[in-house]
Write a structure and sequence with these properties.
Layout lengths: L1 E8 L2 H15 L3 E7 L5 H12 L13 E6 L2 E7 L14 H4 L5 E5 L13 E7 L5 E7 L3
């Protein structure tokens, strides 16, 4: 990854706050890959981001439905969770081409499960345990 920014979030409220902070970065749309172990805080980060963009409703993990879509200020935002995919080619049945638009924002959890089938990321977010506690979150543009 290039142009990386690193953050440490001590707890859930810090992860929400970071999502809020990242809203400016993703405000114009694009494709964001979110990677990390189960329970790392990917959906929490998305919740903070959506709140910052003005969404006031319930933000839930799209684990079972695979996609949760939101319209905020005329912009389409799609939150995908590919954890339950058996094979990357199952993405073809999700209608992904209809979700990717000029100003849409696509937030993809578990992008490695869709490798080779997903459009390229504009941003990558990696969440890992931090040696001092909490989470280490790295936000970067993918290297070409």
């Amino acid at each position: 990854m290039s142009d990386a920014r690193e953050f440490v979030a001590a707890d859930e409220s810090a992860t929400l706050a970071l999502g809020h902070e990242l809203a400016d970065l993703f405000r114009l749309g694009g494709i964001v890959y979110l990677s990390g172990d189960l329970g790392a805080g990917k959906t929490t980060l998305v919740r903070g981001l959506l709140r910052a963009l003005g969404f006031e409703g319930r933000v839930k993990s799209p684990s079972y439905g695979l996609i949760e879509s939101y319209t905020i200020g005329g912009r389409d935002i799609h939150h995908l969770d590919l954890y339950r995919l058996g094979h990357g080619e199952e993405i073809a049945y999700l209608g992904l081409e209809d979700l990717v638009g000029e100003s849409s924002l696509l937030l993809v959890e578990w992008p490695e499960r869709g490798a080779g089938w997903l459009p390229a990321a504009d941003w990558q977010v990696r969440i890992d345990d931090h040696a001092g506690g909490g989470r280490r979150i790295v936000v970067a543009r993918p290297a070409d």
